[in-house]
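Case study 2.
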Amino acid sequence: MVSDRVNRGEQVLALDPLFMGETVPQKPDPTDWELLVATTGDRPLGIEAAQVIAAAKWLRGISAQRQVRLETNGIRSEMVGLAAAALEPALFSEQVSRQAMSSLGFLLDAPVSFRAAPELFCLDLYRDFDIERFIALAAPTRVTLLDYAPPAAYKLPEPAEDSGQ
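Prediction:
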């Protein structure tokens, strides 16, 4: 994704918001940090969306671009991007999400384990919102969801059988 854009001469900012990619604390278990943040009343999804907004504003400020194109890969970054676009719709021209989900119901249908996508298990998120509502709130940002995520990628591995030895 990034290298294709750079090879075409486009300005690119690759970002790992908190709790994603290289910014994931390794000890104790990475999701423990997200739970700790949630106990303060903040939500990791909101913090990550705020970081994307801040980075996009910074990029817009140092470049001639009025709007920023956002590309995401996976259901976690898809939702962070959608939340950012819903909060600041004029900031983004487009969001393209690969390995996306079309509904938060995917979390239950797959089922997705908490440890695979902790920020998506935000209190009352699914009760009050779904992907189409985020897309509507993000207008005029164009949103494209591609290559839907395979449910198996987010399931917990089966426990190893005890051989009785």
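The mean pLDDT is 84.
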